[in-house]
Predict the structure.
Amino acid sequence: MTKPKTPRGIRRRIMSAGLLLLLLVAGWRLNWLGIKHDWPDATGWSAIPEAQRSTETSDHLPALRAGWPVLHWLGHAGFLMEWNGVRLLLDPNDAEWVNVCRRSMTPPAPASTWGRIAAAIISHGHQAHLVPSTLKNVPTLDCIVLPAGSEEYVRGIRPEPATRIVGAVLHEPIHVGSVEIIAVPAAHNGARNHPWASDKKAFGYILRSGGETVYFAGDTGFANDFAGIRDRYHPSLAILPIGAFAPRFPLR
């Protein structure tokens, strides 16, 4: 017995309704309407019981103990770090859009207000981490540090030699003022646009100053050698990404 065929007009209406639903969900998840939330709500911080009991209520994270840096969170993986007289940027991003995604967190102070920056440290070339407009608008930027081989991504963004471009190599120190910067492995793809594989590296970074050590992971998965980084550098403070596990497919 053959199953009766659905009339063509009904099939079209079903497909149109499905497409509309898909667009509505995408628009909600990608924040196409540009709805902004303060950072505790945008990040889920306000929903964590331990966070609600904490005295921390802003995106300004004071030094938790003597010798540690002061951190200003810029959204996503971005931080402005002030440490022993040196101002650093970690994956800075003050852009309204990244590809088809629109910022949902109330934006930080714009890059034009950040003053003199000794170094912008870029973990990899993905467009949420390496943002040309942000780097261009920093008033004074002495150097850009990023994985060796990815220098082409930042050529021409700022005048050289006023802003040096430094290609980082695994475990080889780079000195910026009183801060030592050392690239360490990350389990991630470092290409600008290609989502699967490339010869471009993605790094985390070890930062050292005044006898203290900070680990900035950038983007990485569990396949990374966290134990090796710990045992080699003994960081006191770690800045780690959280996510990439919801939805379980395909992000697991």
Q: What stands out?
A: The chain has a mean pLDDT of 87. The longest strand covers residues 179-185. The first helix runs from residue 8 to 29. The chain is about 20% helix and 25% strand.
